[in-house]
Each structure stands twice: as C-alpha cells, then as structure tokens.
C-alpha cells in the first residue's frame, strides 16, 4: 500500500480547515425553526470525587427544538431533553448505579428537560440562556452561558446546520439526588456541545 504524504493529507483536510477558520457570523445565520441533530450533540457532567479528582460522564441522545432569529436574539426559544437512561461514564457498574433508584431513577424519571424563558445577548457570539431544568421530578432555574460556534450547509447530509456550546452549574441535592454529598460533590458542572438542523 502506497504511503500518503503529509502534503497530500494537508490537501485533503484543507476544505475542513478553511471552513473551521471562517465561521459564519451570527447576523448571517438563517432565522427559523431547528431540531437537535442528535448524533452530534452531547452533554457532559463533571463532579469532584472525594477531593481527589474530577470525574465526568456524558449523556447522548438529545432531542428538542430551537427557534432562532439573529435579529431578535431575545426571542430565542430552546426546548431540549436528554435521556437519563443514556448516562455513560464508560463504567457499566457505575452507569447502572447512576440510573438506579438511589440516584437519578431513570425508570421513573426518564428525561432531563430544559426549557428557556429568557435569552440575553452578552457579546458578539455569546448569550445567557435563562430557563428551567427538570430533573428527577424537580424543576429549578438554570442559566447556561452559550457561545455560537458556526453555521452553514453540512456537506454530508446537505442540511443547514448551526452549532453552539454552553456551560452551566447545578446542585444535584436541589433535585433530590444527594447520595454521597459532600464526598462526591454536590456541584455538578455541565458542558454541552449542540448542533441543530433547520426544519423550516
């Protein structure tokens, strides 16, 4: 098999690099209704483990909708759900425990659900998304600090797509998930990478 040179690899990668280097500006994004692109959306949660180290897991399988108009950021509407049954730490024993009745009780409370109530622009590519998160049967306020990633036509499926990242913090004991607090931290850091495809 003939080796591929570094120069050849650079030529292959060049279109993707160029696309990443010149993200669309927020004002040029198409207004409309979008749905979560489930396969490229992921939520990460991090807790501190006994003061030794930070430990994290992910929740894939997000679904939901976004209504977005770059000329009316404040009117943005976001409604997203994450399946608790999808929690993954790559440790099957721990995953089963987290989904169980002593933790998130996925059988009784299958989804983490976030609905925006207010969006405040904080910079050219950033905004605060203020809303309500429902977890383990309890609803509490949650603010996400979001950053616009980019927009354009996905070259694979030809769908017009926009992307964002967001971070936030919640206390799990507020939702009745208090096992091992404070040894496993009450504070849970959230990190979300989300893609949305335009539906109309």
UniProtKB/TrEMBL annotation:
Domain of life where this protein originates: Bacteria
Domain Lipid/polyisoprenoid-binding YceI-like span(s) in chain numbering: 33-197
Which Gene3D superfamilies does the UniProt record give? Lipid/polyisoprenoid-binding, YceI-like (2.40.128.110)
Keywords of this entry: Signal
Give a Pfam family name: YceI
Would I find rRNA-binding among this entry's keywords?
A: no
Q: Where is the signal peptide?
A: 1-20
- Name it: Lipid/polyisoprenoid-binding YceI-like domain-containing protein
Q: Which organism is it from?
A: Novosphingobium nitrogenifigens DSM 19370
């Amino acid at each position: 098999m003939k080796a591929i040179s570094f120069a050849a690899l650079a030529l292959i990668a060049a279109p993707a690099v160029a696309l990443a280097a010149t993200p669309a500006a927020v004002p040029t994004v198409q207004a409309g209704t979008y749905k979560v692109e489930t396969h490229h959306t992921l939520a990460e949660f991090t807790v501190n483990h006994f003061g030794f180290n930070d430990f994290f897991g992910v929740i894939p399988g997000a679904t939901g909708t976004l209504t977005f108009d770059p000329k009316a950021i404040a009117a943005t509407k976001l409604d997203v759900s994450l399946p608790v049954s999808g929690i993954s730490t790559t440790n099957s024993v721990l995953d089963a425990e987290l989904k169980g009745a002593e933790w998130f009780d996925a059988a009784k409370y299958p989804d983490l659900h976030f609905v925006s109530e207010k969006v405040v622009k904080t910079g050219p590519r950033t905004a605060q998304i203020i809303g309500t998160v429902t977890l383990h049967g309890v609803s509490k306020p949650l603010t996400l600090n979001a950053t616009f990633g980019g927009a354009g036509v996905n070259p694979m499926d030809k769908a017009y797509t926009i992307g964002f990242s967001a971070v936030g913090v919640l206390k799990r004991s507020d939702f009745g998930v208090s096992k091992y607090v404070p040894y496993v931290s009450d504070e849970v850091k959230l990190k979300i990478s989300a893609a949305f495809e335009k539906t109309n």
